[in-house]
Amino acid sequence: MATNLRIDKERLWSSLMDSAQFGATAKGGIRRLTLSDEDKAVRDWFKAACEAEGMTVEIDALGNMFATRPGTDPDAAPISFGSHLDTQPAGGKFDGILGVLAGLEAIRTLNAAGYRTTAPLTLINWTNEEGARFAPAMMCSGVYAGEIGLDAALATTDNDGKTFGAELDRIGYRGTEPVGARRFGAYIELHIEQGPILEEEAKTIGIVTGGQGILWFDGTITGKDSHAGATPMTMRHDALAALAEVILAIEAIAFDHAPGGRATVGEVFALPGSRNTIPGTTRFKADFRHPDAAGLTAMEADLNARLAAIATRRKVEIDLTPVWRKDPIVFDPAIVGAVAAAAEKNGYAARDIISGAGHDAFYLASTCPTGMIFVPCAGGVSHNEEESTTEDECAAGAQVLLDTILEVDGR
Ligand code: GLV
Ligand code: MN
Ligand code: MN
Question: What is the Å distance from ligand 1's center to 32 Cα?
Answer without folding.
Answer: 15
